[in-house]
Design goal:
- This protein folds into 2 domains: 229 residues, no CATH class; 141 residues, no CATH class.
- It has an 8-stranded mixed sheet, sandwiched between helices. A 4-stranded antiparallel sheet has the order 7-6-14-13, with no helix packed on it. It has a two-stranded antiparallel ribbon with strand order 4-5.
- Helix 9 crosses helix 11.
- With 387 residues, it is of the alpha+beta class.
- The protein is built from 13 helices and 14 strands.
- The structure holds iron/sulfur cluster (2 copies).
- The site of one iron/sulfur cluster has 13 residues, from helix 12.
């Protein structure tokens, strides 16, 4: 009895045929491309739109691109913004209304659901999408537009062949290998003159699409080459976050002096929340035109770093930068666990790269843990001296 191979080979020369097949099925292809001197996820139509040969250099508050002579398509790590820009857009009109003689008429929602094919989704980003699924689809209320976009999406993951300096997906168990949540998953391999992708299928739709383009079963050596790339990436993470007991560590350190120290640097700009692939908070604005004939309700991304975010009656609950940073980080790494059953952080590193002052969530957690451990040690020492 023969078993179907789990991995296949797609020669890089045939990558365009993958694009063509997606286009034939009516997908808008969204993938990494150059924009504003960075890698962004945007609509692309051909392999020539991919950032061939470019690699990114990310660190706290720093982002640079370098061009190399390699033909690698997916040499960059995560783009500036995540896929939430497409699944949970920054601005969305929820409804419009028009004045009739005596009242307002609500206008039907005429926006068709876009069919996106995301190419280049990193494993940590797959996990982030899974987390947003939990928020928008698996609670008491289902977000209908998110569900429609999600159900229409085709996902091509790309395993990471290089870890960025701010990446820590290995700590969060979210990468650098895609395990589920994709239709196809690629590992890009460049061996001398040979350039190919090891492809895994993750759904019937993925299998059907792969059947439309030239491919062949992967041999042991090719599978091993892909595994080696992923293992090497895992061994070279730029950052590490010790998640052992992290939730309780933060719960017992609400008054840790580190919150004040980080508040001295935090600008409350909200960048970290906007680039974060899991942050989902929104605000609602109503607007009318100048003559009052038409109105619309718009949903926009919000950030827990604004004063308005926690405005209740007569003022904001979180009026200091200390309370806002503490809220954000404690939500990501502690209360999210109670709320949704996972951390709200996948280790993509964006909040570190795009923080204008380079505040680093892994470093803050490390320093809180260090002083927490110190407290325990001191208490023990005092106890030992007194007995
Ligand atoms: S908290 Fe930072 S590292 Fe974690 S998922 Fe959000 S942006 Fe990425
Ligand atoms: S932590 Fe950094 S990115 Fe986030 S609000 Fe503060 S200054 Fe802005």
């Amino acid at each position: 009895m023969t078993t179907a191979p789990l991995s296949f080979i797609l020669e890089s020369a045939h990558l365009q045929q993958l694009f063509d097949a997606l286009a034939r099925h009516g997908y808008h292809i969204i993938g990494p491309t150059l924009g504003d001197q960075a890698i962004i996820y945007d609509e692309i139509t051909s392999v020539d739109d991919l950032p061939v040969g470019w690699v990114d250099e990310q660190s706290g508050g720093t982002y640079r691109l370098h061009q190399t002579k390699t033909p690698i398509y997916f040499g960059c790590t995560t783009a500036v913004q995540s896929w939430k820009r497409w699944l949970h857009p920054p601005t969305e009109v929820l409804w419009r209304a028009r004045r009739t003689d005596s009242q307002f008429e609500i206008l039907a929602d005429e926006q068709p659901t876009p069919r996106y094919a995301f190419i280049g989704v990193r494993p940590c980003e797959l996990q982030a999408i899974r987390i947003q699924d939990r928020v928008f689809l698996e609670g008491e209320f289902v977000e209908a537009r998110y569900r429609a976009r999600r159900e229409a999406a085709f996902i091509i993951a790309v395993n990471c062949g290089r870890a960025g300096n701010t990446c820590f997906c290995a700590s969060m168990g979210s990468g650098p290998e895609a395990r589920e949540g994709f239709d196809l998953a690629l590992t890009e391999v460049l061996e001398g003159d040979r350039h190919y992708f090891v492809v895994k299928t993750g759904s019937a739709a993925g299998q059907a699409l792969l059947a439309e383009i030239p491919h062949q079963p992967a041999g042991d050596a090719e599978i091993e080459a892909a595994a080696h790339i992923i293992a090497d990436t895992s061994a070279h993470m730029g950052r590490e976050l010790n998640v052992d007991g992290l939730r309780d560590l933060l719960y017992r350190n609400y008054e840790h002096p580190r919150w004040e120290a980080v508040a001295q640097r935090c600008l409350s700009c909200g960048n970290c929340t906007l680039v974060c692939p899991t942050c989902f908070c929104v605000t609602i604005e109503d607007a009318t035109n100048l003559n009052g004939d038409e109105a619309q309700r718009v949903r926009k991304w919000d950030s827990c770093f604004t004063m308005d975010f926690s405005y209740i009656h007569g003022g904001s609950v979180r009026y200091s930068a200390k309370s806002r940073y503490r809220q954000w980080m404690t939500h990501k790494l502690a209360t999210w666990v109670d709320q949704f059953g996972t951390f709200g952080c996948v280790g993509c590193g964006r909040c570190i790269t795009w923080c204008p002052v380079g505040i680093d969530i892994t470093e803050e957690a490390r320093l809180i843990r260090a002083a927490d451990n110190q407290t325990v040690v001191n208490k023990k020492a005092n106890h030992d001296e007194s007995v």
